Amino acid sequence: MEEQKYIKGFNSGYLLAKHMPTLLSKVVKNISPADDFSEGLLFGKEEYELEYSRIHTDELKRLRNKSQDRDKGHERD
User: What Cα–Cα distance (Å) separates residue 55 from each residue in 23, 51, 52, 61, 74?
Assistant: First the structure.
């Protein structure tokens, strides 16, 4: 594996997933991980999606807890 190509692909995949997900979807639809760059591209996309999902799941939990705490306060009134 050529590490530099993989890293460039990973970083490109991550940034495209973050800023241009529609374009990235079109690109990855037509590739298979045949080389280090495309393999990195796919893993960069996956990493961004995992982080995005984790952040939004945590945010959703925080908002639910905040809402439940607020509802408990109204029950006392």
Answer: 23, 6, 5, 10, 29
* Side-chain-facing half-sphere of 54: CA atoms under 13 Å: 6
> Structural domain of residue 9, as residue ranges?
3-76
Q: CB–CB of 15/50 below 8 Å?
A: no
| Count of structural domains within the chain | 1
* pTM of the model as a whole: 0.73
Tell me: the pLDDT tens digits for 8-35? 999 999 999 999 999 999 998 888 768 9
Which helix (H) or strand (E) is 77 found in, with range?
none
